Amino acid sequence: MLFDENVKATALPLSLLKNITDDFTNNNEIGNGGFAVVYKGLLENGVVAVKKLANMSVTDERRFLGEVECLMKAKHKNIVRFLGYCSDSQGQWVEYNGKSVMGDVRQRLLCFEYVPNRSLDKYIKGAHTSLEWGKRYQIIKGVCEGLHFLHKKNIVHSDLKPANILLDNDMTPKITDFGISRCFDGKQTHIITKSIIGSRRYLAPEGFYGKISFKSDIFSLGVTIIEILTLNEDYPDVLRVLKCWEHRLEKSQKDQELEQISVCTKVAQSCLEFYPAKRPSAQDIIDILKQKEGNEWPIETGGSSSTVPYESSHVEDKSKSSSSTGPKAYSFAQNKNMPPRRRHRRIC
Ligand SMILES: Nc1ncnc2c1ncn2[C@@H]1O[C@H](COP(=O)(O)OP(=O)(O)OP(=O)(O)O)[C@@H](O)[C@H]1O
Ligand SMILES: [Mg+2]
Fold first, then answer.
1. 28, 29, 30, best to mutate for ligand 1 pocket (most atoms within 8 Å of CB)
2. Biased composition, Low complexity: where in the chain (predicted)?
């Protein structure tokens, strides 16, 4: 039943999840982040991933409920498939402040399809840096489509980054980790939180003041695309990125692929605009990529990156983003709140 795509995610008993993970044994651990440990669960007819949330304080309970709420609405080929949840509370005699008391022991778990090829960050920073361009392009497109779907459903992910993008057998990307995601109501455009949420490296400038919006996801998408393109944290210059890739591409598809790389670099730059309103929407980005696939975007290699303008309809502020000095993308160096840079390998 768990594997039937038409069945809605459902409540699952703790005993079942214990059973399939061999009581959450370390041997079955497949990943962990700041808030959970993820285990492989073995069923008779397949494998699932079981995410066991740590420390169930009131805040963690809110996180769990928020994650379930978003996941219930998020059914798409580029979003990890949510199979079920478990919310279990049991009275247990426990030691508390030197006394034995009846405590409420909570277990909160989520069950997903198992995505076998690990998370994208491992390919960017690890031994798999040779990931060819064709695959990277498919990943960029898939992530954009997944994010577009979320935004259509009024969900802001808030923690989009390569570590939260899982890769399937055929390298289809699946966005995961909705622990700090928010479902906005129809007309809501942003919220202000008291604390900074998200991962600093991927956080939009306004995120450092607690503002979360669809456009803050777009900023995180921009950083993610840059990492997929360059394996390098610097603000990319289109010509430099193209030059680096030129040596690596197969001759037969070189022109087409260089064009894709050029467009993706410029899309990423526009996502990093300092002002949220100047960033494209996920729909805009998909339109740009689709348009490019129709070969309507001739590549320009003779000038600076600013000589390749965006189609006016794809960015919200046409006059500024296609000006003669090019889009003023946000530079990592401008952000005083950013942690010190780590060194990444370059692509050439
Ligand atoms: N469905 C899955 N299939 C395979 N591996 C998974 C799956 N879900 C999670 N993982 C692994 O577990 C890791 C942590 O998962 P996840 O990001 O959901 O947890 P988290 O504790 O909320 O992380 P964070 O610190 O980013 O909030 C992932 O990076 C991935 O390696
Ligand atoms: Mg995570």
1. 30
2. 321-331
